Here is the input.
Amino acid sequence: MSQSLHPLIDTFFESNVLQADGPVFVDFWEPRCRACQATRPDLDRLEEHLGDRGRVISLNVNSYPDLAHTFDVAAVPTLLAFRNGDVTGRLEGARKIGAFVNRVTETVSMRQAA
Here is the structure.
């Protein structure tokens, strides 16, 4: 990461996102954002379908502005996908996030049914 964050945040982010074994989806949100509230059920569903294969972490941009800045989060909701410490995907907006979650959960459901 290009900036030095608070040591506790650095440690949490390093171990739970950058060094995670599977995919990690980081949801950047803001409490007054209605679109952010609208994506919460989708993200809960994504986390449920991922199970122990990955995780979803939500970060309030008001509480972690340096982290949002580090990853150029200018709009909320923004969902970043991380794998092996790298950002592998970026979605902005409730509709894009909802459509993405639908695709992922359908794919996982089809694999489980086969």
